[in-house]
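Running this now, will post back.
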Amino acid sequence: MTDRPAVESSFDDWLGWLEKLDPRYIELGLDRVRGVHRHLPQLNRQCTRVVTVAGTNGKGTAVATLESLAKAHKNSCLAYFSPHIERFTERVRLNGIEVSEIRLVQAFAQVLDAMECSALELTYFEFVTLAALVLAAEEQPDLLLLEVGLGGRLDAVNLVDPDLCLITSIGLDHQDWLGSSRDAIAGEKLGICRPGVALVCSDREPPEEIAAAAKANDFPLYLIGRDFDFDALSRALYFQDADLSLPQGADRLHPDSVACALVAAYLLGLVGAVGGDLHTLQVALPGRFEHWKPGQRELLLDVAHNPAAWQALADRLKAMDLEVDLLFAAMADKDFEQAFAILDSQVRNFLLLELPQSRAAKPEQLKQAASRQGISAQRLQIPNIDLLREQLLETQSTPLLATGSFYTVAFVKQLLRESSSRG
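Update: finished.
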């Protein structure tokens, strides 16, 4: 690779080189990443326990909750998230703080050296995952939290044997890679499991494949609704003899995933049977029903990008008796027509955005899909950039909700920053 960046190259130069690996390109499998990993620093498994988190939705919530619990109980923690929204550094956090660009560049250089030494090519996600594992090997944290990027069985994070597994939910997404049924997708996510290693699952309608896998591979299984659950009003968590409560902010995330993480924390010994000060713990994650108020109008940001996530978002709006104007954009390979059907009853007007990503559906495609769901033309707008900025800052009682993808949230946040700087 003659164009490889030097260690002293800027972070932006390294990201530019990484982009040449193409974040959109997916080639599942562990052979390449395992071959490169042999040439890199290794975790000391006597020091570090690993939790691997798979699921269609709610993975980031579970990781962020465990990260907060580890920090509150004085356990060092490195958390690996995927994907990021605004800054690449969001992907790797040490004790709740994003790892510096300098540290990431040093890790990138080690991965690239190992890649060249092994004569193997990596995908973008594989490269980034190995960089996170390099940082974990250097830090030797008490806890390493790994969020699966896609599926589980053949995802790069599955290179590391976990001490505990979480599956937050199982929905229809990435069917081209994972299968066309929930059973097939469950089978892929169950690939993170190991014999004898406990699995905590917060899917309320778990496919039979999960219980069958637990029996066949002899691992403890904890299912929400059967082995643990919580009361939405009191936020009390019911699990064995534990006296725990959901942290503050759980209702703005995925409460089932928060409960899943609390059970995991109990099994790991991060919290005792009596939760102590958990009721004061705050858990937040960018882009998960995130609130902004840039002007006089409330803005909500949510990265929901598949039918199950849009349904959860619609249920939350209904529970709050909240009507919104919707800022919407989605990737062309998503079933975005379902978003209009699911969210319609809680939306006054739809503002269909044009994102700068080549994978994004064009606004006219979105408009046609909305029309097929019976949404009138009067409720559908394709605003230009200036009108969109005005919408973000104008005075109205109806909140704006931006959703449809991680890119949608990142795009709207960028507009907010530009609008603020102009103001």
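The domain at 11-280 is CATH 3.40.1190.10 (UDP-N-acetylmuramoyl-L-alanine:D-glutamate ligase). More later if anyone needs it.
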